[in-house]
Design a protein that fits this description.
The chain has 13 helices and 15 strands. By secondary structure, it is α/β, with parallel strands linked by helices. The protein has one domain (39-350): Alpha-Beta Barrel (TIM Barrel).
């Protein structure tokens, strides 16, 4: 066994005995490796139960481990929707059987995610990490207030997909220059920031803990910055693609279609400013796998969503850290530390080991996820995950 007193670690005070006793560490070259706490993604779609042809708990968790993640929170747009203890238990049984990392499911805010009646939050509270209707915005202000009050009484967070359906007008990419030039229907930024504005007022009024999914535009950043300065209990996330790409990068290909859409250069810069000044608390992937057929229909007709859990760290390290936009320590805060703090997710004998100097080309054929659609295909990045340990056990090993 090697001497473990000198491995380079980032944001880890001390490696646990369970990690150090893992035999796979014996093969590591610590001159080339950096050890991080296991990453935590609070926004993934593992599609099971109901849509296992897109992804399963097993394939999704294996993909997560390859990306350095040891904890994820799974969104509730499933079949059946986890809107009751009975339905949530169906997912929990699969997680217990098949997950290779820690998987924490959301319960839905509303019954069947229809936005008409509050779900059975009380009976799910013990096993749901939080409550979300991700994939759909809660359109009714009264219903959202009711949900916030209930969540507060249960000590749970409301996690909101903020989208005003009345402002969509059939759009599917950002309402910007590319949409106008190529005759596409656009999604305006107001469809995102107006619901955020509404919900921040409700969070202030109810005292609910409130978290906002995948923000993408400058107005959202400013609203959240202001609310935080006023003491509202709010956190938010953005995703790697919004920090790296803009609508100028769009191609006539379904792999560039996600919701919210890629927005303008000014929006991207506002997001970068938000992660630098602490307005944005964490980066989540919104890993959203679909079948190849569902992503082959072009920008207009392809399904919304891309995969990202296997490439997130590589992309963010390459584009943000190596370009001196943020420090490596700040990236680890965004990917590992802050998500766990906000959602009270423990880190128990977890870590991930990376060779940061190794260049690689993103090849979807290598993905462990069933989903292969990414706008970063064939892009060169730095960093390769060589080992991920969860609960002291190896869950991914490159060598």
């Amino acid at each position: 066994m090697q001497n473990f007193s000198k491995p380079k670690t980032v944001m880890i005070d001390k490696l646990s005995d369970a990690v150090l006793s893992n035999g796979d560490f014996a093969d590591l070259n610590f001159e080339k490796s950096v050890i991080f706490p296991g990453f935590c993604d609070v926004h993934v779609h593992f599609r099971e139960p109901g849509f296992s042809y897109k992804e399963t708990i097993k394939s999704g968790s294996l993909a997560a481990a390859r990306g350095g993640y040891t904890a994820v929170c799974t969104m509730p747009n499933l079949n059946p929707v986890p809107d009751s203890a009975e339905n949530l238990n169906k997912q929990l049984e699969i997680i217990k059987r098949d997950a290779v990392i820690n998987v924490y499911p959301y319960g839905s805010i509303t019954e069947a995610q229809k936005g008409e009646h509050i779900s059975k939050m009380d009976e799910m509270a013990e096993n749901a990490i939080a409550f979300s209707d991700d994939g759909r915005g809660v359109q009714s202000q009264e219903l959202m207030k009711e949900a916030m009050l209930k969540a507060k009484s249960l000590g749970k967070i409301i996690v909101a997909h903020c989208e005003d359906n009345s402002l969509l007008f059939g759009g599917y990419i950002h309402a910007g220059a590319y949409a106008k030039k190529h005759g596409h229907r656009g999604i305006c930024s107001e469809s995102e920031w107006k619901p955020i504005e509404r919900d921040l007022k409700l969070a202030r009024e109810t005292g609910c803990s409130y978290h906002i999914c995948h923000i993408s535009c400058k107005e959202s950043v400013e609203l959240i910055r202001r609310a935080k300065s006023e003491g509202v209990d709010v956190t938010c996330e953005t995703a790697p693609h919004y920090l790296i790409l803009t609508d100028d990068c769009l191609e006539e290909d379904g792999k560039f279609k996600m919701n919210p859409p890629l927005r303008s250069f000014e929006d991207r810069q506002a997001l970068i400013d938000g992660i630098k000044d602490g307005t944005i608390d964490m980066i989540a992937t919104d890993h959203a796998p679909h079948s190849a057929e569902e992503k082959s229909r072009g920008l207009e007709k392809s399904a919304f969503g891309i995969v990202g859990i296997e490439t997130a760290f590589q992309l963010l390290y390459t584009h943000l850290v190596k370009n001196n936009i943020i420090s490596l320590e700040r990236l680890i805060e965004l990917m590992a530390v802050n998500p766990r703090k906000r959602f009270n997710i423990p880190i128990c004998d977890d870590c991930t080991v990376w060779n940061l100097n190794e260049k690689t080309v993103i090849n979807p054929d290598d993905f462990l996820s069933k989903g292969k659609s990414t706008p970063f295909e064939n892009k060169e990045v730095f960093g390769k995950c060589v080992l991920t340990v969860c609960g002291g056990k190896t869950v991914y090993k490159l060598f």
